[in-house]
Amino acid sequence: MINLKIDPEFQNQIPPLTDDEYKQLEENILKEGKLLSPLIVWNNTLVDGHNRYAILQKHPEIYFSTMPLRFENREEAIAWICRNQLGRRNLSPEQKRYLLGKQYEAERKAAKIFRGNQYTLAKKSGGTHDDNHHSGKKTCDRIAEENGVSRASVLRASHYTRGIDIADNLSPGIKQKVFSGEVKFTNEEMSKLVLSSPDKRQDVFAEIMHPEITKAMETANADPKADEPVPMPISNPEQFKGYQVPDECMKVYKTLSMATEMMRNTWKRVLKNNQSYLSDPEKQKVLRYAMQRPAHYLNELEACMEQILSESIEEAEKTA
Known about the structure:
It comes from Faecalibacterium prausnitzii. The structure is a single chain. By secondary structure, the chain is mainly α. The chain contains 14 helices and 3 strands. Helix 4 packs antiparallel against helix 5, helix 10 crosses helix 11 and helix 11 packs antiparallel against helix 12.
């Protein structure tokens, strides 16, 4: 059994198989008793065939072969992976758009590296070198023609891909949810994320994921007569029976209440997708630990309010 290196970046460009697809692939390999197609490698690093190699790890008796390919750099390898996937698999529109953009970005970087090396060689030798590998049509036009799409589609895919990578960094696992169709993003949303400054991306991503909450908050700020939001929790609810928020305080009240609603919706969504955290004692510790911070903040805020009120009363009594 040859131990091949697994490069996470290479592996992440390959759309994952469903459980049924993986099971069917394993059954086919076991039935044949060997791999019909060689694994593609670059300097002992696996480039294509990650699912088949995972099955081989479970069944070392299966015969397989490798086919080495030569790449000048990692970007060329990534571009090859994307081009290979685009040409041979049934892909969802999201997967195809992502791979299209990733191929374009990788080939652009590879071309820059090539030109840099070409310049260095030319300077050392005093001559020039023919750009055979990168000659011909521009990268964008060539990729568009290869995939039967417009040049604009490739450029939009580039922004989409970069946006998905940023989103996956902000919320690990979101890319796979996009590929499975559980989550959908538009080109415009991903462009907005890409063009935002790094310190604002978390806020932009939250707006994209929860547009209904953002819209509700904007409505609350703009219209003090909007529908009542969910009240914030209080330590003594009896004292607020029949209480009406004064009109001049409504804007602040609604904004704070909407923030509470946003937190509640986030918790509900996360727990709905991770229900074991409600029943597993060890995972419950994680929830209780996460609950400490908001609870501690609200308790501190209430204590601070009581302290300021007490000091105000004392000051008023002194001057009375």
